[in-house]
Amino acid sequence: MSRSTFYRHFYDKYELLNAYYDTVLNRTLYRCRTDLTWKQAVCSIYREIRNNLVFYQNALKSHEMNCLRDHILKISIELHYSILQKNNVDMDDWKNRKLMQSYIFGNFDVMCLWISEGMKEPVADMSELMISRLPEPFTPYFK
Length: 143
What we know:
By secondary structure, the protein is an all-alpha fold. The protein is built from 7 helices and no strands. The radius of gyration is 16 Å and the shape is globular.
């Protein structure tokens, strides 16, 4: 593919990575909306990452604008908020927002560290650990 063809379809390399990650989400994590439990969906995205570990280790190193790290964080916030709003949790309430943000940002940092260290711990155990940190008022909505 020539450079001009690439830029006709993507703004930059990060947009390509983000589009690829979105396709991964559709066959893994987003299935929590239809046929998987939250834990199964989290396990499925972690397995996908483990199966492509070197790719994700390299992709998550970047902190540039529009990078995969920012994309994953944005998607995670949107997904968690949409699940809570669907269950009539007021996400305009600053306490709810900050409580969920503290969970999402903390889990995201731990996940990135886990990936950078080679994902040595079992996917099921890490999924269970991450889910166990959900703020208590929100746990019923992530079953």
